[in-house]
Amino acid sequence: MKKSKILILVLSLTLILSLSIGAMAQVKNPTTFTKVNMGTIDSLDPHYQYDNASSEIYANIYENLIMFKKGDITQYEPMLATKVPTVENGLVRDNQTTYVFPIREGVKFHEGGTLTPEDVKYSFMRGLIFDRNGGPFWMLYGPLFDADGLADLSSRVVGVDDPSQLTAEQSRELYEQLDQAIEVDGNNVIFHLPKPNPTFMSAIVHDNGLGAIIDKEWSIEQGAWDGSPESIPEYHDLAKEEDALHENPNGTGPFELNTWEKGQRIALDRFDGYWREPAQLERVIINYIDEWSTRKLMLQRGDADVVYMDKQYQSQVAELDGVELITGLPNLYTGYGLMNWTIDTQGNQDVHSGKLDGNGIPSDFFADIHVRKAFNYAMNYDAFVKDVMDGDGQQARGPIPEPFLGWEEDSPVYTMDLDKAEEHFKQAFDGELWEKGFEITILYNTGNSMRQTASQMLKYNIEQINPKFKVNMRGIQWGSYLDRLVAGKFTLGFIGWGADYADPHNFTVPFMRTDGTFGNFKGENYAEFAAEHNIDELVNSGVETTVQEEREEIYTEIQNIAYEYATDIYLYQPTAHILMRDWVQGWEYDPILHDGIYYYNIYKAQE
Amino acid sequence: MISYIVRRLLILPIILIGVTLLVFSMIMMLSPYQRLSTYVTDPSQLKNVDVDVLVSRYGLDDPWYEQYGRWIKGVAQGDLGWSESAGATVNEAFIDRFPATAELGILALLPVVLGGIVLGVFASVHHNDIWDHVSRVLAIIGWSVPTFVFGLIMLMIFYGTLGWFPPSRLSAWALEIVNSSAFINYTGFFILDGLLNGDLAIVGNAIRHLIAPVVTISILWWAFIMRITRSSMLEILRKDYIRTARSKGVTENVVVYKHAVRNALIPVVTVAGRMVLGLLGGLVITETIFNIEGLGQFMAQAAQQLDYPAVLGGTLYFGFLLIVINLCVDVSYAIIDPRIRLG
Amino acid sequence: MEWQEVVKRLFQNKISLIGLILVIAFALIAIFAPWIAPPADPRDPYMVPRDGWGFEPQPPGEGHIFGTAEGQYDIFYGIIWGTRTAFRIGFIIVGISSLIGIFIGTISAFYGGWLDEILMRITDIFMAIPFLIAAIVMTTILGQGLRNVMIALITFGWMNTARLMRSQVLAIKEEEFVMAADALGASDLRIIFKHVIINTIFPLVIEASMRMGSMVITASTLSFLGIGAPQGYADWGQMISFARNWILGGEGNAIKYWYTVVIPGSAITFFCLSWNLIGDAFRDILDPKLQ
Description:
The complex is a heterotrimer of chains A (607), B (343) and C (291). Chain B is an all-alpha fold and 343 residues long. Chain B has helices spanning 2-27, 32-36, 51-57, 64-76, 90-125, 130-144, 147-161, 172-179, 190-196, 200-237, 240-247, 252-289, 295-304, 308-336, and strands at residues 82-83, 88-89.
């Protein structure tokens, strides 16, 4: 019949078409780099963004005063400054409270402006004023003002807690404070610190968007902070949709934005007016695809040059042709089991009866050192590192990861020892716990297999010790996880922290200080313990000196406290890895950018 | 008829408000901190964050009617709010993703309806013999395979092993062309845009990427259309005028294809209209598995991230679509078959 | 048609016979699960045992006749105990949502007027959200877990039954014997039960049978998306979600991990198939137009 003939025609046409196109897909463009990542870009505003996916984009578009020496996060090199200030070259003065940065001349912004010292000062001021809640500027407020953020400074200077409520007069007063910390002097920009602080340089280095330099005139045109001392309340803590620089970046970096399809794809083009040699790649495309199988296939077929891969799937790519997997890269990350020392038992299903009666746990369950130690001895660290992490990584030795000060290869750690766990359980609550038993529900956030497995190991081992011990596991969504942490209802669950800047202080604060991100979730019992052992003072003293030996001693002691008192279950420090085509050349690992790539030095060539 | 349409249109806003209230009341079952997870998507974002300030910034602890009122006020001004999971306004997010879904949906509708009708006619002609049973059982098997299982197996065979039908909407090289300034995006439908730009390679590539998802959807819905065609055909084949035609010596083929099919299709057409919404639900999984960045995938993602402006906006869009489709179906049904009284 | 006649025809019809045999087989597996796959921890039989902590799935072999899924979960155990999960999901969701639908549909049709109008508009509202999206939203809000999946599917699963019931009751209401009973002064409730429900039971059973399959599919879809059954719970959809990142296999052997998809996938398919076959044959038997 007629109809079927048409059908056959259409089918065969489609087939021919698709086959001929299949051949074309093999053509690979050597000057275009394609990466397939997971997740989404939060913002292109360097002062707003504070996540891995966004910072990769920032790092290629914007530049800072200084940058890390290639492949070494302990040494700096000049970027938009012409010299790295040191005590030796006289640019760090006044007992390390004055830092002088001579600014490079002849640097162009993507949109045509020329870099001036005024731009540098404006950039920092704009960021400090912007200081969004949950943003990165606390890293700078510490060294520059000895404060947590603009709100903290505002309440100190003018007595107003919320900078958005400032009057024009108060705004001016607060502005003076900010203004006197950063000074333009001829071709130099000078920072004045209240006291020496070892974290200042690592906070403003390239890789951290908070130190990104933007074009003053252009930014004001776009609607960013207008430069007026009175407008702090208008430009403080803006939401993404009100942020003038959310989607139109203009930096001095080697690449400029071509298109950003939110949630899907971003394309960067080479900036030919770059102050150094222009980059070798003409274009960089980053696609965001959550499905691992798709990412893998794109890599396999050469459609992608680098793809994101979860560690546990590495067996699938080990033998792929033309693909290179580099593992064992340093990863500044500590994964740990957070124990809530003060559990809110009110209406909390995870503590069951909420009492020490064999059918639940009391609020201060984890405030008992023997319970904590028993849990620590019941974790199967070796199996976790060997099987779950596939051998790529190591057991954590406290909050501070390798290679920071305080991390020591031979420091004491817990190993799985069910006899010792039993011993400690018997001593807990003066033996009452052993007699009566307990029931607890520990939490993991759904979709995270590593945390789920770690919880399962605890359950498996602890239930073996005493038949009266019952450990349940509950997977909850990240939202509920967060809710329970904030509400103090969290029992025990695994969570982790990655470095913002290269200093152990970035780890001791969140894990150990009572007002740190995680310490804050552990309640009064932990605060009491911390007060007794002067933990907050100890953590703070780590940045009150710049003498390496003194710092090392402090951080070693903090690590030791974490072990000695089993404050939590420090579980693992993973390694990082990258999966790419073997024609990718010039790649260098940067542990702060982590999964992100600095594309300036990269080119594609078959060896 | 006119009064019926007017009445239905008057009910429309009531239903839409009801739908959004329903979804909103579900969202309000969550604590403000839980809903904060829309904005704080992982632990690293807790650094130096004051959760209570964030809660009050987004007004998450206001009474529900204030929050709903704020939202409805925005809707009245055409502003559906900001979708955190898309990183864009809800309107933008939907407009960006609409072409992918529409392209897939429209292309799937064709084989679904045609295939279903062919199967149904075939089965009815062979009523109660072995072919009837075989085709029915095959269709029911198709109906019984979960979309995600079928999709995964399709990927495994036709992409993983044979490399024929890749996921996503276009290959990397084609995306480059589509995103270049030389290519004009008239509609966002890649097949159409490819034709309009005279670039057949793009058209071919887009079609190639659509084959596997279209087949996956078709398998599911064939049984549905077939069932209706079959029973409608069986009914009509017994009607007097068909018997008369037969007795007059008209050949069986002419009876079936000329007289019966035409009449039997009336209920099929109306059902196909209603099926569009069922298809939208099915697209959630198909789009997720084949990595097509469309509305279905977006809604599933938004729901899982508790991105409630997107979820609310989505239900509003879908509810509107459903009601309009239903209305069109009812009206066209009445036009086709004047015996039907609307009421 | 009489009960006995319908049952007799169901057994005579080859299509429904296959369906019935499959359902009975599944029921036997569910009943004898503790003997077929003895649980390691009788307190928690629905947790699939893990054989080690590694990630890569292991092919069928000794000790694991169906192999292990990602995370060394035993697929065989998951399939056997998952049968119980499937029956539980199906019966509870279809049972409760049918009751709700019957109640709303009957009241709506019987009393008519403004009550009918309100109930039907509420039905419209619930139907205006695509089913799967509604289920995803509600499960996400209630949190992971099978109980919450069931609540969500019941909440958005009663409308078709309500509509069906309403049209059936309306049709029967017109019929003479109901009018006669009404005239004789029988109470509302008795009329509803005696005449209406008895006369509408068959279409409802067909509807319920077809929904058994689709509800189990939807529940497993939610598990597949990671918001249904918790990780490691004996549920077919959950077992398949383990396969998601392994479907393209290793180099040169794309179907290396086929068993992670195909085995649990077949279990769901056959389960739904059995109910759909019964429902389909049932409908044929009862449809007077098709006799």
